[in-house]
Specification:
This protein is an alpha+beta fold and 168 residues long. It has 1 helix and 9 strands, in the order H-E-E-E-E-E-E-E-E-E. It has a 3-stranded antiparallel beta sheet with strand order 1-9-8, with no helix packed on it. Strands 2-3-4 form a 3-stranded antiparallel beta sheet, covered by helices on one side. The structure holds FE2/S2 (inorganic) cluster.
Length: 168
C-alpha cells in the first residue's frame, strides 16, 4: 500500500518535472530562436543583396517608363517565400534607368502617368506625391526625396536589377 502511494508521488513529481522542463524549454526557445534569427539575418540579407534578378529584355524598353514585375524566392531563416517586386524601367541613350515604385513619402505605390492632370510624371495616389521621369520629387508635394533607383546590369540583351537605393 505504502509502496503504491510512493509510486504515485514519484509519478506526480515526474509529471511536475516534465511539465516544468517542457515549459522552460518552450520559453527558452522563444527567447533564443529570435536571437539566432537576428544574428543570422544580416548574413542572409548580404547574400540576397548581391543577387541580380532578370526583369526585362532590352528590346522591350522605350524612352518611356514601363512597369516590369519580377519574382524570386527569398529564404528567411526557416521560411522560403516567393517575393514579387516591380521596377519602372526606361532607356535614355545608352543608359537604362530602373526606378522603385515605392513612394518615398509613406510607401504607397506610384505609377507613371497615373493621374491625367500630371502627364509625364510618376504619381502617388495616397497624398498626391509627384515625381519627374528620373524619379526626382516635385517640390510642393509630400515626398521629400527622389524615388529609389535599382542597380542595373545588362547581360546578353537581358536587364538585371539589384537592390533599389536612395538617390540622395
Ligand atoms: S505615400 Fe505617396 S504621397 Fe504620401
Amino acid at each position: 500500500m505504502v509502496s503504491e502511494e510512493q509510486n504515485h508521488n514519484v509519478s506526480r513529481r515526474q509529471f511536475l518535472t516534465y511539465t516544468l522542463t517542457g515549459v522552460g524549454g518552450f520559453m527558452a526557445a522563444g527567447i533564443i530562436l529570435p536571437m539566432a534569427r537576428f544574428a543570422i539575418d544580416p548574413v542572409l540579407q548580404a547574400e540576397s543583396a548581391g543577387d541580380m534578378k532578370a526583369v526585362a529584355s532590352v528590346d522591350d524598353l522605350t524612352d518611356q517608363p514601363q512597369r516590369f514585375d519580377f519574382s524570386y524566392e527569398q529564404e528567411d531563416a526557416w521560411v522560403t517565400s516567393e517575393v514579387t517586386e516591380t521596377a519602372w524601367i526606361y532607356q535614355e541613350g545608352d543608359e537604362i534607368i530602373a526606378l522603385s515604385p515605392t513612394c518615398t513619402h509613406l510607401g504607397c505605390t506610384v505609377g507613371w502617368e497615373a493621374n491625367q492632370d500630371h502627364p509625364k510624371e510618376f504619381f502617388c495616389p495616397c497624398h498626391g506625391g509627384r515625381f519627374k521621369k528620373d524619379g526626382t520629387n516635385i517640390e510642393g508635394t509630400p515626398p521629400t526625396e527622389p524615388l529609389h533607383k535599382y542597380e542595373v546590369e545588362v547581360q546578353q540583351g537581358t536587364v538585371y536589377v539589384g537592390k533599389a537605393e536612395s538617390q540622395v
